[in-house]
Every structure is written in C-alpha cells, then in structure tokens.
Amino acid sequence: MADPIGEKIVITVLSADRPGIVAGVTRVLADLNVNILELSQTVLDGVFSMIAIADISTSGYDFKKIKHDLEAEGVKLNINLLIQRKEIFDRMHRV
Amino acid sequence: MVTSDEILETIKMVKVEQLDIRTVTLGINLLDCAKNDVGHTCERITDKLIDKAGDFVEIVNSVQEDFGIPIVNKRIAVTPISLIINALGMPSKKAAVKIATTLDEAAEDLGINFIGGYTALVHRAASLGDNMLIESIPEAMEATERLCSSVVVASTRDGINMDEILRMGRIIKKTSEVSDTGCARLVVLANAPEDIPFMPGAYHGIGNSDASINVGISGPGVVRAAVEKTDGNFMELCDTIKRVSFKIVRAGELIGEEVAKRMKVDFGSIDLSLAPTPAVGDSVAKIIEDMGIEHCGGPGSTCALALLTDAVKKGGIMASSRIGGYSGAFIPVSEDRGMIEVAKAGHINIEKLEAMTSVCSVGLDMVPIPGDTPAEIIAGIIADQMAIGVYNNKTVGARLVPIKGKKEGDYVHFGGLLGEGSVMPVKKIDCSKFVKRGGRIPASVTSFRN
C-alpha cells in the first residue's frame, strides 16, 4: 500500500546510558533499508537520549513493520523507544 | 526542521502530562433509514452503522500508532432520533425504545463506548416524535449502557421552552430512579451546535453530510504543567496558555484530518474544550488553583476560569480554522480530580458552579444531587443554566445526576471516566409556581441581529 502521509519518521530513545544502544537501533534501520537523515544523542546526568529522523521511502517495508521491528529491538535493549511519523511534530511546533 | 527540544517536549506532553485526544467521533446520518415499520427501520440503522463504521475503531487505532498520540475514545453520533421517530408510520414510546436498544447493540458490536443522538430538538416546541422520544428516555436509559441522550430546550434565537424544562425535571428524576448511569448519559442543552464530539451532547445535525469526523481534544494536564511553571503576570500567563493550546489543537487537527481521509468522510471540526478526567493531574480545577487560588471555588475562580477559557480559544483559533462544538472548558464535578476534592471539602457549591459556567462551556456538568430533589427544583436549576446560555449567546448544558437514596454529603462512585464525588447540597426553595407558569420565554433581545 502506498504510504498516505509522508515518509519521514522520528525515533526517540530514552534510557540509562550504556554501550550498544545506537548500534542496536541503527542496525535494525540498516536491515530494513531505512535511511537516517539526522541523528543526535546526548547524555545528561546519566540519562541517554537519542533522536533520529529517518526516511522510510527507501525501505521496501511499511510503517507498521518498521515500527514492529524497532519496538522489538527496544524490548531487547531494555530501552524506552518511540516511533512516530514526523508530521505530528511539524504540525505542533510550526505555524 | 523540528528541533530535538521540540520533539522531546511533545513526548513529555504525552508521557508525563497526559496529552491525549479525548475523542474521535464519527457522525452518521440516519435519515435514509427511516421507514414506515420500526422493525425495518432498526434493521436499516444497524446495516448503515456497520457499513459506515465497520472499520472505524481499527482506523482510529492505526492513526494513534502512526503519530504516537493516544486517542482515548471512539464514538458515534447519529441524526436526532426524534426525526426518525417522526417518520415512522406509527410513532410510539415503544418504537423509540426499540431504536434505542438497536443503537446500543450496534455500538457494542462496533467497539464504541458511547453512541449519541438519542436527541430531541424542542427549543421552540415538541413534535410527536420529540414527545415519544422524551417520554421514552427513562426506559431507554434503563435498557442501554452506551446510549447518550440530549434534549435541546432553548436557544438565543427561539427563547426558553419552559414546558420542556419542567418535563425534563420530571424525566431526569424518573431516569435516576431506574438507571444508575442514565442521568450521566443525559444532558439538557441550549444553543446546541451540530458538531459536538463530546458525550452525551453529541448528535449528527441535519446540516452535516452523510458522515463526518469531529475531534475532541483534551489537555488539562498539559496546560496545568505550563501554568505551574509560570510566575509571570497575567499577560505572560495568558500567552503561555495560548501557546500550549495552539500545540494541542494542531495535534487534534492532524489526527482528525488523517482519520477522515482514511475513512473517506468529511472532517467536520475540532472541539478545543479542556476536558478533565478523574486521573491525577488532568484537572481544570487544579489549573485554577495553580494560578494562585487556594481552592477552586474560592474568590477569583470565575475570573481564573474566564481567562483560561479565553486564552485556550485564542490559541486554538490560531491553530485551526475548524474550531467547533462546545470549545470552552468543562468543569464536571465528578470527572475532575480537583473538583471532586473541593466539592467534598465544601469549597464549591452549585451556585458558584453556575457562576463559573457563565464563562466556560457546557455548564452544570455531572453534578450529583440528592435523590429526593423535587422535579420542580431540578427544572429551576436547569432554567437558570439555560438562561445563562440564551442571554449570553453561548452553548450551555445541564447534566444533573440525582442519586437515588442518597442525601447531601454522601459519596457516590460512577466508575470510569464518569468518576465519583460527593452529593452536593441543593437549596430547597420552592420555585414550582415559576416553572409551572407554562409556555416559552420569548427570544432574547440579543437575538435580533438581522
């Protein structure tokens, strides 16, 4: 099915800091052929946060499958991981 | 490009401050279902609801997954059923109840928690169908769990139908005697818009297309978090509320657009009303207290609610051109954690609530009152509420809930979103001569605008 509402997603990770989080998440994206457009991560007071904006149009998979695989990885890594379509942020924060 | 801070702000709104979309409501026209025979009519109603709403819940859930914003309720509003009853060959109370149970069963099958539109429009006078529907309300509410009913008894253009207000006093009392949640699913309205997404006032007005989506946003928790952080003066306070309102209305707009697109129906409007829940933090009363008033209901509360409602509207109107429905703030006594507390402590009474309704929307909402309150006094309270709406050109509703066998100060649990609370004292001052004068109070001078 053609994606009806844009192709960009935002992946947000919040977790205690430890090695392998970025590697784990980006490995899933690479396996699904999802292209990362922006990636930032910070550690503040031991809290790790990572935000990735990615384009899913290059992937042969739909949003549902990508969300499913990323959430499974989130469970494996024991991190808080959210996947949302980017439009919600654009709409809420831009006039 | 959105910044990391903006992304994290949105996530915090959802995860910590309880931002959600309170309801996505699908309005469905049932006029084409009305046939001579009530059995045939009910079959057609069921078929149409399944045809139009068969995949509604699934689609709303998929939109929720895509955007990561919780959508709490999926609801349906239908054409005022009094119009369907009017079209029957033999309109009767029994036929009305049969339609009521048909709607309730369809809602259950579709996974819908409330279905609205068991509605009569009697702001000028009652037709035969209106009479049958209104008289059937106690029995219809007793026989259903999901059905919501509304009766429009007044409008600025038409005046106040006092005969119907008196009748509703009796109907509310009778309903309270046969159904525990019946009165919580029943509202008396003035100046009712045709695009309300919130229950129990939602109905699919005849000015709408065959099916349309209306969205009710939420957000008391988000507004409260912003107000809590603001020590500034009133200009700064209002500006803070406006900014938050803009964001939550935008979220509602995107979700409404997307659901309507996937359902292939019209997108009607967004109701920006702040709708509290019994959840801790999701309270309009607490916003008022955070502005600097010790207890909601104390001096300053009406003013605080007025500035809150006004700032929410300003931010919302900037955010979307589809603002409709009630679009104010709700102050339901049993559904708002802060309100439950101040009512229990006696800091707020019906008279102060009534004053506050002059600057918000909906009105006396989910107010538990003693079960032995006479119908004439219930009618008197409704009349006061309707007057506030009619003479100030605004929508108001009264959802009074007499609690069978309970007296003032007793505690009652409705369960779920309907909440809990103390039975409020009602002044036992006789107004029966007034409410029984009969007829309609003429249209207000404020209606003559042509």
Automatic annotation (TrEMBL), chain A:
InterPro entries: ACT-like_dom_sf (IPR045865), ACT_dom (IPR002912), UPF0237/GcvR_regulator (IPR050990), UPF0237_ACT (IPR022986). CDD domains: ACT_1ZPV. Residues 10-84 form the ACT domain. Transmembrane segments: none annotated. SUPFAM superfamilies: ACT-like. Pfam families: ACT_6 (PF13740). It comes from the Archaea. PANTHER family: UPF0237 PROTEIN MJ1558 (PTHR34875:SF6). Belongs to the UPF0237 family. This is UPF0237 protein AMQ22_00558. It comes from Candidatus Methanofastidiosum methylothiophilum. The lineage of its organism: Archaea, Methanobacteriati, Methanobacteriota, Stenosarchaea group, Candidatus Methanofastidiosia.
TrEMBL record, chain B:
SUPFAM superfamilies: PFL-like glycyl radical enzymes. PANTHER family: UPF0210 PROTEIN MJ1665, UPF0210 PROTEIN SPR0218. Belongs to the UPF0210 family. This is UPF0210 protein AMQ22_00559.
